[in-house]
């Protein structure tokens, strides 16, 4: 269209972005999204959420997309009035896999402040990632937050902690 001096409008961009997302062409959709943002088109919350979920899922296999998912989420937070707890969970999982623990912990706290109770799997993702990073004290804090929010830790919650205690020679800490 551009080559023919016919500039696409918001509907054209939205249709293209939606189609790319439906077909799982996440990198291409990200390119269209960046182009839209660059020329000040507004991307609606539903499309941003779909793009974000696609980026998160793709980044679990291709780690180089973690930063893009983080940036889209930040943009989404500034534009969308409310973000659901499952979107927060997706982003926290993605940040954990991308070893961005400070951001993941920050989003957990934001989620709780907003009145959402994270799912057990969200807590487990954080605990596991923190243990893999050797941050057992932070993992224990997440376990306490889990209890404070009425969630019962699963075997997975404890397995990660026990393994880390064993690895560091602090077996006494897990008894």
What brief labels describe this structure?
single chain, 175 residues, mainly alpha, elongated
Number of strands: 0
Low-confidence stretches: none
Helix content: 55-70%
What global shape is seen?
elongated
Helix count equals: 9
Mind summarizing the main beta sheet?
none
Gyration radius from CA atoms, angstroms? 19 Å
Order of helices and strands: HHHHHHHHH
What is the overall pLDDT average?
84
In short:
The protein is mainly α and about 180 residues long. The chain has helices at about 10-20, 25-40, 45-60, 65-80, 85-95, 100-115, 120-130, 135-150, 155-170.
Question: Which SSEs are present, and which pair or pack?
Answer:
Layout: H1 10-22, H2 26-38, H3 45-59, H4 66-79, H5 85-97, H6 101-113, H7 120-132, H8 136-148, H9 155-168
What this model shows, in words?
With 175 residues, the protein is mainly alpha-helical. Helices cover 69% and strands 0% of the residues. It is elongated, with a radius of gyration of 19 Å. The mean pLDDT is 84.
């Amino acid at each position: 269209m551009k080559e023919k001096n016919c500039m696409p409008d918001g509907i054209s961009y939205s249709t293209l972005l939606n189609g790319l997302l439906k077909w799982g062409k996440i990198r291409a959709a990200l390119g269209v999204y960046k182009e839209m943002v660059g020329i000040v088109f507004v991307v609606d919350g539903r499309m941003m959420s779909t793009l974000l979920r696609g980026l998160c899922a793709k980044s679990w296999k291709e780690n180089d997309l973690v930063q893009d998912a983080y940036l889209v989420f930040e943009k989404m937070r500034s534009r969308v009035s409310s973000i659901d707890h499952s979107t927060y969970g997706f982003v926290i999982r993605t940040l954990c896999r991308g070893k961005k623990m400070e951001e993941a912990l920050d989003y957990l706290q934001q989620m709780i402040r907003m009145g959402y109770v994270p799912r057990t799997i969200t807590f487990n993702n954080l605990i596991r990632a923190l243990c893999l990073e050797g941050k057992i004290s932070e993992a224990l804090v997440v376990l306490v937050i889990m209890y404070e929010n009425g969630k019962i830790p699963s075997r997975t919650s404890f397995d990660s902690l026990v393994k880390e205690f064993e690895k560091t020679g602090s077996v006494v800490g897990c008894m």
